[in-house]
From TrEMBL:
Keywords from the UniProt entry: FAD, Flavoprotein, Oxidoreductase
Protein known as: FAD-binding PCMH-type domain-containing protein
InterPro entries: FAD-bd_PCMH, FAD-bd_PCMH-like_sf, FAD-bd_PCMH_sub2, FAD-linked_Oxidoreductase, Oxid_FAD_bind_N
Signal peptide as annotated in the record: none
Domain called FAD-binding PCMH-type: residue spans: 51-220
Family designation: Belongs to the oxygen-dependent FAD-linked oxidoreductase family.
Phylogenetic lineage: Eukaryota, Fungi, Dikarya, Ascomycota, Pezizomycotina
Length: 475
């Protein structure tokens, strides 16, 4: 380390030295901003203000060379850094001892129609990739949020509504370029460092700063519609009917139908009348007739509205935009369970817990929600083994808090823990899994389950990042 010490002042000074050194080394489109600069506020915005810190500087890189230079200099000076792309996680923030490498301007997307691939730069968001893919008559299994970083979502496993047909997002990764902890820029593929390809498909952010990812793309026809559209509905019911809804939905969620995905969401009515509703948010890759036949048991319950529509692949995430906005205090935690929890009493208890949280914290917390989600499974063994270890999850239980008054922190956390407990206590210890795109405080075995997976990843981590430049997770 040059001129630093382990004192707080030493660390702050080291970060400042790196920033000063970088100024002359980065490309003309890059930017370095500190709290004093007008642009800082915008670049510092995040999906959630929970845990938000103020870094020594934000280095907004524009090229692969910028990324490599910044990582090398930080490593050489012993300065901590965090990459930030979509800013939707709790982890891309750091205090005055470190810097944020902001990748948002580094967002090129190249679709190769002939080779059926899409290559995204390290900071591109899901919406940047989906639109040009659709234009080329192709699709890839990205996540359900336009502004989430396409790299971070994919390399942390990548839950997706497309999984029954196309696998998890990480299953579609063909290759990557990344800057290692040693500052080298390497290509990772089936023929170049193949052992790292395993790691990148589920634990990628712990092994390097990924400057680009290439995904397999598939013709839109795999979506089982002639025009690249997908069938969707959002059918609301009064919360008092949750027992009937879960009784109709659970057998569908447990069925092996790869064309369907769905969620059951407990939240407050968007009409602001204070009532709690339960929403069946359903997706089907196929004709509207087949979709209606598949979901007939839900439709037969008579929701307020059935609200079905067909949405193009390019716009599949648009309904979710209101949930992607920056600011406020939000956090999602999830638990994966091996059997769909279909007992009405469990979900009636969920509604009760949700209502007592909102009653206590008031309308400013009313956009919080508790959900059951399931995605198509696809046939076992179809996808290569990788760091993603959640193939046995039948359904995910999610609790999302969203409040605007910071004082609600404790109450929100207590409710979230309780919301997961209500469902997961029915399973044996070790049967419940957690997802590292959502939480990173849970036991690591629950994030990388499966025989030999964790050991293999730990061995790779010791080889590629022994000092924990990209966090000490897996060390
Ligand atoms: C509204 C919403 C919807 C979501 N939907 C889905 C979904 O459908 N499927 C799913 O799987 N997950 C989903 N998630 C979870 C989401 O994928 C993770 O939170 C993801 O980490 C966010 O990525 P980001 O780039 O937006 O966030 P960031 O906070 O910018 O980055 C997330 C993590 O990745 C690191 N990172 C970012 N870019 C790089 C890079 N190029 N190289 C190396 N490390 C990098 C950051 O340091 C941080 O640790 C959703 C989250 C939200 C808030």
């Amino acid at each position: 380390m040059s001129g630093t010490s382990n004192t707080t002042e030493g660390l702050y000074a080291a970060a400042k030295n790196v920033v000063a050194d970088l100024a002359s080394k980065l490309s003309s489109n890059s930017k370095i901003v500190t709290e004093q600069d007008a642009e800082f506020k915008v670049l510092h915005e995040r999906w959630t203000n929970i845990g938000k810190k103020t870094p020594a500087a934000i280095v907004a890189v524009a090229t692969e060379a910028d990324v490599q230079e910044t990582v090398k200099l930080c490593v050489a000076h012993g300065v901590e850094f965090v990459p930030k792309s979509g800013g939707h996680s709790l982890w891309s923030t750091i205090g005055a001892e470190g810097i944020i490498i902001d990748l948002t301007a580094f967002n090129a997307v190249v679709v190769d129609k002939e080779a059926r691939t899409v290559t995204v730069s390290g900071g591109s968001q899901i919406k940047d990739a989906v639109a040009p893919l659709y234009k080329a008559g192709l699709c890839a299994p990205f996540g359900t949020a336009n502004t989430v970083g396409s790299v971070a979502q994919a390399v942390n496993g990548g839950l997706t509504i497309f999984s029954g047909i196309l696998g998890q997002t990480s299953d579609a990764i063909l290759s990557a370029r990344l800057v290692t902890a040693a500052g080298d820029l390497i290509t990772v593929s089936a023929t170049s460092h193949p052992e790292l390809l395993y790691a990148i498909k589920g634990a990628g952010t712990y092994f390097g700063l990924i400057t680009s990812l290439t995904f397999r793309a598939s013709p839109l026809s795999v979506l089982n519609s002639p025009d690249g559209t997908i069938w969707k509905t959002a059918a609301p019911f009064p919360a008092a009917r949750i027992g009937e809804l879960i009784s109709a939905l659970a057998p569908l969620a447990a069925s092996p139908e790869p064309r369907a995905a769905g969620a059951m969401v407990i939240t407050k009515s968007p009409h602001g009348d204070g009532s709690t509703i339960v929403l069946a948010s359903l997706i089907f890759f196929g004709s509207s007739e087949d979709a209606n036949a598949h979901f007939a048991p839900v439709k037969a319950l008579g929701p307020f509205v059935w609200g079905e529509k067909r949405v193009s692949y390019a716009n599949i995430n648009d309904d979710f935009d209101p949930f992607c906005v920056t600011g406020g205090f939000k956090r999602h935690i999830v638990a994966g369970v091996p059997r769909v929890p279909g007992e009405p009493a469990v979900w009636e208890a969920e509604v009760k817990a949700y209502e007592s949280f909102i009653e206590k914290e008031g309308a400013q917390a009313a956009r919080s929600m508790a959900c059951l989600m399931y995605v198509g499974k696809g046939e076992a063994g179809r996808w290569e083994e990788s760091a993603y270890g959640h193939r046995n999850v039948a359904a995910w239980i999610e609790a999302v808090c969203w409040y605007t008054e910071e004082k609600s922190y404790e109450a929100a956390w207590e409710w979230q823990v309780e919301a997961l407990r209500i469902v997961t206590e029915r399973y044996e210890v070790g049967e419940t899994e957690t997802f590292q795109n959502s939480q990173r405080e849970t036991p690591i075995e629950s994030r990388f389950p499966g025989e030999g997976r964790l050991e293999k990843l730990k061995t790779l981590k010791r080889e590629w990042d022994p000092k924990g430049v990209f966090t000490d997770v897996l060390l």
